[in-house]
Amino acid sequence: MTPRELRVFCLSFNAVVEDFPFNPETSVFKVQGRLFALTNLDAQPLKVNLKCDPEDAVRLRGEYEGLIVPGWHMNKRHWNTVTVDGKLPDGLVRELVEDSYDLVVAGLPRADRLRLDRP
């Protein structure tokens, strides 16, 4: 997955915006103002912080040692840093991004979740 493909995929979800609150290099993808993905799209190798269910986070870190690690500068229980350098299948990366988005949406107030379900 290229940086451009990662960016386009993150932006493909309902109500997502890309923001740069930290610096011009760090893309923060948010839904309803809440972060679900954080990355420097110009970094080599490309890495992205993604929210993850705590049990899945531990399992993924063991299964993909060195490629999926505890979230850098994030709550290590709920966030993973995923290296997107071609060693992980693109389908897995997409699944992890989608799971992160879904976890954040699940934590939104009911009214906000209902608005997201509309086309």
TrEMBL record:
The keyword DNA-binding applies. InterPro entries: YjbR, YjbR-like_sf, YjbR/MT2646/Rv2570-like. Keywords: DNA-binding. GO terms for molecular function: DNA binding. SUPFAM superfamilies: YjbR-like. It holds the Pfam family YjbR. PANTHER family: CYTOPLASMIC PROTEIN, CYTOPLASMIC PROTEIN-RELATED. This is DNA-binding protein. It comes from Streptomyces colonosanans.
